[in-house]
Amino acid sequence: MAACLKDARVLFITLQIFFFMCACVSGRRNPTTPLNGAPGVNMCKVQHVLGSQDKFFTHCVAQHLKMICERPTYDRWECCSGFQKTGRERGCSRVKPLDNIIETTRDLGLTDFISHAEGAGLLSDLSNGGAYTVFAPTNQAIREVSPDVLSKLSPDRRSMSLLNYHVAPGRLNISSFRDRNQEFVTLHNGDKVRVNKYAYGVATVNCARIVRPDEMATNGVVHVIDKVINPADIKGNIAERVLSDDRFSQFQMAMLISDMYKKLRASSQSFTLLAPTNHAFAKLPSDILDKILTDADTAEKVLQRHVVRGVYCADAIVVAVGLKTMDDTRLLFRCKRDGLWINEAKVLHPDLVASNGVIHGIDTVLLPDSVKPTATLLHDMHLYSFLNLARAAGLNNTLDINNITLFSPTDQAFKDLPRGYLAALIKEPLKVEQLVKYHMVRGRIDESQLVGDSTLNSMADLAVKIKVKISRKGVTLNKSTLEEHPRECQSSMIHKVDRVMVPPEKDLMDYIKDDPDLSVFKHMLEKSGVNEEWLPGGSYTVLAPTNRALAHVDERQLQEMMNDSTRLRTFVRRHVITRMILKCSIPEQGVYTTRSKQGDETNFAYDEKNRLFVNTHSRVLSEDILTSNGIIYKLDHVLPCSCEPRLRTDRGQYFGSHSYRRRY
């Protein structure tokens, strides 16, 4: 029976595959079957950008984009190239016979191109000669050019028409443009055009976008473009081009001071140059501007941030593209509703084409961190609260001390401080200064130089050191965790931390003395002498049972222990760990295991209600309280100890066999 069922299932699956293949074959053979959800046969989707004249054909954009340049798109269906409608049919079933280039452009509605081709004497050649590839500008593109360029489209017989520059020998389909950057010879005195291909299927010719590619003709192929292209635009390289433009005179000075002018002029590679305008340089602080225009090393660092390998035209950016500069920095080239942006710089003058690349004029100088003063980098990292606190303490000059490291709390870290703490602190300028300097260390220290269970000497006039702790969750300084990677500026290295590092004013014993809940444990420490073992600069964790916790111990046994200094010292050491255990280093799921100074295993773990327990028995009642030489946790039970196996609770239960609240 089972064998029959198995054979039936195999037969059923085989029949499904057979019918599916038949449907596929019949679909290929039936020319009247619409594809890709089209309303009719041989129809192609055109994406229109709302609020603009831009449109993208499906074979031009590789995927449907719901937003282009932060504007929504909507779809319309048109007859695919080479097809036309018959009567009122929904699709485009009639095949248009191929015609010559002139008739093909006429069919595309490029009347201005045909008119200037006639004036330039190109009608006969484009009708009967070939094969040619024509980059035909739209009517709107031709009507928007200057009178001087317009006259060059239809010059007298003694001059060559600018339209010759739009014609290349051979049949070059969009698939022929295989590399990101290719050049092709034209009929205009052998001058070349540069074709670039980008993401989303976008292609450009001298930075003019191909808006409708691959319109086939009997004697070639037509690509419709959105600009008139000019060989004069690419006669000089980008270094020469920017040097001849007065809008970039400050940038020119920086190029000449550094070696960048020579590099760009001599290189055989193609580049995109992001050239800040004179107004962009005028926005810089005077000291930074002077250094860029007088110091070759500084000018070189700034210019490397403005040079990108490869050609990235404005029309190539339909959403966003990542750029990599010569100093290996990543920039984001975005197309937004209000224009093109490169990081925080707006593109004012796009697509200044040159022989070895393209120039975009921008309104902001892209400063590398290495030339910024500390205050500027703090501002760029959005560390406003720390910067304002430093200025309030009159520490502007201190921030610019050379070769220091700042561990700057985020703005959220300042908001997380106890209510009223910051307002009260500002009234005491000396304490503000000490707090800011406590976050500063001499020398440039990156994350790789921070070693666990070590200390850092801050620049504050305090004996308290910063405790460094390494866990699987990252690097912790006191109780503050490092965020992101550090950034390095002209005089310092800056790390973000998620908490304000308030310098602890008490050591372990001072805190225990001042806490009335720990008075019995304080007495045990003093009587055993364990507190005298704590070094001032040490890193300890004290698991301090509260008075109520110690009240659970059998009174007679506790008194016997208090009268025996050796037993008492061993028992107290059971509650001391010779390293700092922070809450942030304990996993939310799992167990953090270490050993006490007495030698017993100590386990930290959270229960299902996110409560922290030690050895499943003792619940932690407090935060991890930071002192100058360690951490204190307050416990609701004493810890069972192998040194006191007979120790009982006030109800006669042995601590070692106490019913655990949670099992690991």
Describe it for me?
One of its GO terms (molecular function) is cell adhesion molecule binding. By secondary structure, this protein is an alpha+beta fold. The chain has five domains: 58 residues, no CATH class; 133 residues, FAS1 domain (Roll); 135 residues, FAS1 domain; 116 residues, FAS1 domain, CATH 2.30.180.10; 150 residues, FAS1 domain (Roll), CATH 2.30.180. It is 28% helix and 26% strand. It contains 23 helices and 35 strands. It has a seven-stranded mixed β-sheet with strand order 8-7-13-12-11-10-9. Strands 15-14-20-19-18-17-16 form a seven-stranded mixed β-sheet. A seven-stranded mixed β-sheet has the order 22-21-27-26-25-24-23. Strand 34 and strand 35 form a beta hairpin. The longest helix has 28 residues. The N terminus and C terminus are likely disordered.
CATH domain class of the largest domain: Mainly Beta
Report the span from N to C terminus.
51 Å
Count of separate DSSP helical elements: 23
The CATH architecture term of the largest domain is: Roll
Largest sheet: 7 strands, mixed
CATH topology-level name of the largest domain: FAS1 domain
